[in-house]
Amino acid sequence: MDIRAISLDLDDTLWPIAPVMQHVERSVDAWLREHCPEVAAAWPIEALRALRDEVARDHPEHAHDFRAQRKLTLRRAFAPFGLGEDWVERSYAIYVRARNEVDCYADTVPALAALAARLPLVSISNGTAELERIGLGEHFRFSVAACDVGVAKPAPAIFHHACARLGLAPSQVLHVGDDPHTDVAGAHAAGLHTVWINRNEATWSGDVAPDLVVHDLGELAAWLAMRT
Fold it and tell me: What is the rounded distance in angstroms from the CA atom of residue 20 to the CA atom of residue 163?
């Protein structure tokens, strides 16, 4: 493999996403209870989560854009109370803040530093995390988000977008992620080499085998060090 850059997924690759989303829901709920309790009473956490799922079903054109889905959800929640766009933006700001308060896996920061010292790193994510807010931006050349590109993984276009920005052929980029479908199969179909990060001793469930399997990013950094 002629690897000249590495792309990385974010959620469940650099940090666990489940506790982040729980924190998001609690933070938005607490803000609503303080600032507009009538909305909080009408839309407790479980109901607001169901409303978000309803919005996703009603707007498949935003399947790649969780940012748009979230704002549409908030508009529906506020509308019966005559609360407009300013309330949407204020509550969405709470979402953004909480969404970027993550606890990285222990290996993430040292491994990113080691990887970035050898090759350019970029992120490719379907989510809305912002590496600069999180404090990891210094390790990455740039970030690619589905909501900005207009298409989500596993579509080849999002991987090709990142490769074009790097000025590299897909075969020169190694993609790292936790999801057998969106990360491994998607990157493989786009012509990239692939790494499956299997932190939980899961059984492989994908149709296309990854080029490399690691249990954490430290293993990937050690593998790369042996090659360069």
Answer: 29
